[in-house]
Amino acid sequence: MSLTGKTLFITGASRGIGLAIALKAAADGANIAIAAKTSEPHPKLEGTIHTAAAAIEKAGGHALPLVVDVREEASVKAAIDETAARFGGIDIVVNNASAIQLTPVAQTDMRRYDLMMGINTRGTFMVSKYALPHLAKAANPHILTLSPPLDMAEKWFAPHTAYTMAKFGMSLVVLGLAGEQRGKIAVNALWPRTTIATAAIKNLLGGDAVMRMSRTPDILAEAAYRIFHKPKTFSGNFLIDDNFLSGEGVTDFDRYRVDPAQPLHLDFFVPDSMPPPPGVNLKAKA
User: Fold this and answer.
1) Most exposed: 66, 67, 76, 227, by fewest CB within 10 Å?
2) DSSP label at 48?
């Protein structure tokens, strides 16, 4: 398997999961467009599009750092067009950019509601929309969205209705677009079983304690890498990272644990009908 010469357009690729996916592809010599908002250092968030570009180049890839607000139509269209012009096309789009606020309806500010819907649902729709003409020219095009299976259970909505709507909105784009582009472009969703050690977890969802109970972004990078090598007929799937990797023959999941002495912290939105694969132990290692 190799992504040599392939061009990836990744939103939110300046850090975390997006950057991990970029670095995995960069090791093959892939071209990576880093579409993110952070061009100057942030006091609470590590990484900018420029530090990501340097890391991608060091890993063996070719980087194009782009300041992109996925809520702004002109910004998205210009970035996609520039990527295609620079690298001669686009093979893969990764919709990774996302905003989060875990509040019930009464405590959700409407500006924050609009932000989550604008970045998560609308951003995924718009990036995919403008990438379609370029993907249609690729040999084995893929759209991969970091969003959950559509498990319409009250327990996922009640604690944070707005956030769940925004994330499920991303998944609805996957569902519709997979059918629309069936046989032409692979469109899939990927979601982690456990929390992933990123700035969002550290700053918003439990600090260092939950970070130690998480897996590293590398598990999603490995899953994404393998998805990109599937034929374009592999489409319309809502994949949980370890279930998919287990089906690919991966058996060692402990290497992705931040701290094996800690039990793994389950992520939101993983359906009860999707239990861990054989060999995955969610408890602390003895």
Assistant:
1) 67
2) -
Beta sheet of 92-95, edge-to-edge order: 62-67, 31-36, 7-11, 92-95, 142-145, 186-191, 238-240
- Give the list of residues 6+ apart from residue 14 with CB closer than 8 angstroms, or none: 34, 36, 38, 47, 48, 49, 51, 52
Give CA–CA dist 174/153, Å, rounded: 19
Long-range contacts of 110-118 (CB under 8 A, 24+ apart): 112/162, 113/162, 116/162, 116/163, 116/165, 116/166, 117/162, 117/165, 117/166, 117/169, 118/70, 118/71
Matching residue, tokens 């023959």: 249
**With a threshold of 0.85, does the pTM exceed it?**
yes
Matching residue, tokens 């789009």:
93
Would you please indicate which residues are annotated as catalytic (active-site) residues?
A: 163
Closest CA to 90 of 109, 121, 53, 64: 64
215-269 residue pLDDT tens: 999 999 999 999 999 999 999 999 999 999 999 999 999 999 999 999 999 999 9
* Integer angstrom CA distances of residue 196 from 68, 214, 217, 226: 24, 5, 6, 19
- Partners of residue 266 on adjacent β-strands: 194
